[in-house]
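USER: Please consider what follows.
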Amino acid sequence: MTSALWLLACVPGALIWLTVLLLGCVLALSWAFWLPITGLLAGDPTARIWAVVAIAAMVAAYLPTLRFYGLSLLWALLLPLTGTLYLLMTIDSAVSSARRVRSSWRGRTYGVGPR
């Protein structure tokens, strides 16, 4: 009985914290992958310079991975799209978890952890 009451009292706080973490991830990924792109479209030359620097840093950080797998270095230009897909998958995973939907892969269904 006591553990059930404890769990009931802790869940709202945990949900608020998880929501804050999810919003933080959404903001960080949006900022990292889309702010440089919007900076390129800005009319301010300083914003464009910083956008080019940010995109160059993003591409430079990804080049070793592309070289390791023997892929074309042009794949690095798709990082904003890749980051957006990752962001959408993160949001979908959080929504599925909140709905207590079980994940499945290759015919196997995985349980949802206790709350």
Observations:
- The longest strand covers residues 103-105.
- Residues 47-95 form one domain.
- Strands lie at 103-105, 108-110.
- The chain has a mean pLDDT of 80.
